[in-house]
Amino acid sequence: MTDSRRQRRIWYAVGAVLVVAFLAYGTTSFKSNLTPYVSFEEAARTGNKVQIAGSLVENSTEYLDASEDLRFSMADEKGHTLTVHYKGVKPGNFEEAVQIVAVGTYQKGVFHAEQLLVKCPSKYQGLEDDVRSYGSET
Question: Taking the complete model, does pTM exceed 0.70, yes or no?
């Protein structure tokens, strides 16, 4: 075998290794960023990073401004409740939230949220009024 053929085969092998390494890295990165929606029971069972959705339990919110600690209870559709701890700035209009989505992990009886997504009814009230007014003009 000539030297040029040997070098070409080595470069093909290096290229194949790089492609396989890139695909493996891409697959694991994509898989680690997936956070499925689960029930409260499943979140407690798995201990993995997941998303849970529910409504805010009235008068369950405790927020400490100095440490930016937010604790509250969420209720799911079946009426199960779960205590959630979030470290960060309390979202605006949190008390008026219709639905809350928490992304995080369940540990020792508490769901530790890394992210909170709050659906507030006041953000959508203006849209309904606009749709009605546009509807009456036509």
Answer: no
The whole-number mean pLDDT for each consecutive block of 10 residues of the chain, a chain of 138 residues, reads 87 96 91 85 90 93 93 93 94 87 94 92 60 52
Between CA 54 and CA 93 the distance in angstroms is: 16
Q: Name the 3-class secondary structure at 2.
A: coil
Token reading at 87: 């470290």
Amino acid (1-letter code) at residue 55: S
Answer for the pair 62, 70: CB distance below 8 angstroms, yes or no. yes
Helix (H, G, I), strand (E, B), or coil: what is residue 101?
strand
Taking phi first (over 0 means left), then psi (-120 to 50 degrees means alpha), and beta for anything else, what does residue 122 get?
A: alpha
d(CA 110, CA 38) in angstroms, rounded, equals 15
- Separation in Å, CA 71 to CA 12, 21, 25, 56, 66: 56, 42, 36, 11, 14
Closest by alpha carbon to 106, among 84, 131, 75, 129?
84
